[in-house]
Amino acid sequence: MKFTKLLFITCLIAGLSAPGFSQQKVTLEEALDIAFENSPDIKRSRLNMEQNKELLNAQLASLKSRFAFDITPFSYVNQDSYDELRSAWYSSESMKSSGQLSVSQPIKIFDGTLSLINRFEYYDNVSGTGGIEIADKGFSNNLYLQYVQPLFVYNQTKMNLERNQLNLENATLAYSIEMLNMEKYVSQAFYDIYQKQMSLQIAIEDFENQKVSRSIVESKVEGDLLAREELFQAELNYATSSSNLEDQKVALENSKDDFKRLLGISLNEEIEVIADIQYKEVPVNLDQAVENGLKQRLELQQKEISITYAQFDLIQTSANNKFRGDVSLSMGMMGNDPVLTDVYDKPTKSPQANITFSIPLFDWGARKARIKAAELSLESTKIDLKDLENDIIINIRKVYRNLNNLIRQIGIADQNVRNAEMTYDINLERFRNGDLTSIDLERFQNQLSEKKMNRANALINYKLELLNLKIQSLWDFENNRSFISQELQSNMSSPINEDN
Question: Looking at residue 397, what is its pLDDT?
Answer without folding.
Answer: 95
